[in-house]
Amino acid sequence: MINNIYPWQEALFSQWMHAGTARHHALLLHGKAGIGKLAFAQAMAASLLCLQPQANAMACGECGSCHWLSEGAHPDFREITPEDDDNADGSKKKTRKRQQILIDQIRALNDYLALTSHRVDGMRVVLIHPLEAMNVAASNALLKLLEEPPQRTQFLLVSHQRQALLPTILSRCMQVDMPVPTREQGLQWLQAQSVTQPEWIWHYSGGAPTSVQQEDLDWYVWYQQWSPHLSRGSAMDIVAAGPVLLKQGMEHAIQVLQKWLLDIWLARHAQPLRYHPSEANTLQMLAAKLDVTRLLAFQQQLNRFKMTAQHSLNQELQLEQLLLQYKKLFG
Ligand SMILES: [Zn+2]
Questions:
Q1: In this structure, which long-range contacts are made by residues 281-285, counting pairs with CB atoms below 8 Å and at least 24 apart in sequence?
Q2: Where is this region: Disordered (predicted)?
Q3: Domain residues for 18?
Q4: Distance 56 CA to ligand 1 centre (A)
């Protein structure tokens, strides 16, 4: 698992691992979601901590350090990410995924870094992801650490949204533009994952396919269920469509609508479709009936709903409202 980098990252991996002392103490790995940035950072951490890295610079997977890391117990490694909220009774059931990295997490990191590393000459590695999840207080606390970096400490910072980061943080990092797969690399990799319809997934993921590993979801099967509903435009049956779209939760439902609408908009402007090229005929028919002014308002509404999607109390009702607006787009 710690050696799971993607084929399109191999050259960059070797470049960074061989940089040695020339490597900046804080690397900001940025790029769109779904291209494998976190896997790259994890492999880098493993390699830096490994006692006997392989010739290709990957961690050996067998030494004491690698064992500690795979058990989540390495004394010289810290991973910081939004934590789940615990229930008051201490049970782990129904925890809500937190959105933010909090200042207490960075304070704890600061205390930890004030201690010396476990190994006398060893590295310490700090992995923070996604960096944009830090609130302002946490960002400022991290900034202090980056300004006066502790000895022999490598910060690996992962971000999907560099534009959301404080400029002061950016100025303290070396920014690494993470490689995206070529179409050929992406398709080859998807085929090796034995997903159904690699070609379709390649398009639907917008060329960022690695999330198929994290999500327990057959995107193509689900698509076959929702697309007939959305294809009906103003004649769509909301009562039938709602539950199908909500199967994977509100966030995914909104994403489906956003991608579908973008392609309708592209069809309207005679541009190549991005996510559903196999639906060209349907999307062109919908585009011909589209009320463009309403589309813009609807897209803004979708963006607003997306921000609250995880906390929404009545998702069925919210989605019904959205689908009603969707029908009205087509006159
Ligand atoms: Zn090792």
A1: 282/231, 285/233
A2: 77-96
A3: 7-86+96-177
A4: 13
Helix, strand, coil content of the chain in percent (nearest 5): 55, 10, 35
Distance 48 CA to ligand 1 centre (A): 9
- For residue 73, how far is its CA from the centre of ligand 1 (angstroms)? 14
Query: What is the Å distance from ligand 1's center to 76 Cα?
Result: 14
pLDDT in tens, 133-148: 999 999 999 999 999 9
Residue 150 alpha carbon to ligand 1 centre in Å: 24
CATH code of residue 130:
3.40.50.300
* pLDDT tens digits, one per residue of 156-187: 999 999 999 999 999 999 999 999 999 999 99
How many separate helices (H) and strands (E) can be counted in the chain?
Answer: 15, 5
- Residue 93, pLDDT > 50, answer no
Residue 187 lies in a domain: no
Distance CA 219, CA 252 (A): 11
Residue 115's pLDDT is: 83
Please give the tally of structural domains in the chain: 2
113 Cα to the center of ligand 1, angstroms: 23
